[in-house]
Amino acid sequence: MTLAVLLQTMKDKARGNVLAILLILVFITYMVIMFPEVQKMTGIDEIMKSPAFQALLGKAPDFTSFDGFLSIEAFALIGLVICGYIGFLTASFLAGEIEMKTIDLLLAQPVTRFRLVVDRYGALVPMVALLVLSLLAGVFIGTKIMNIEVSYLWLALALALMGLFMLAFGAISLFVSAVLSDGRTAAIVSLGLLIVMYFMETIGQSVEKLGLIRSLSLFHYAQYSDILVYHDLSPGNAGVLATVTIAFLALAVFIFRRRDIHVT
Question: Which of 60, 96, 153, 158 would give a disulfide with 183, using CB separation of 3.0 to 4.6 Å?
Answer without folding.
Answer: 96
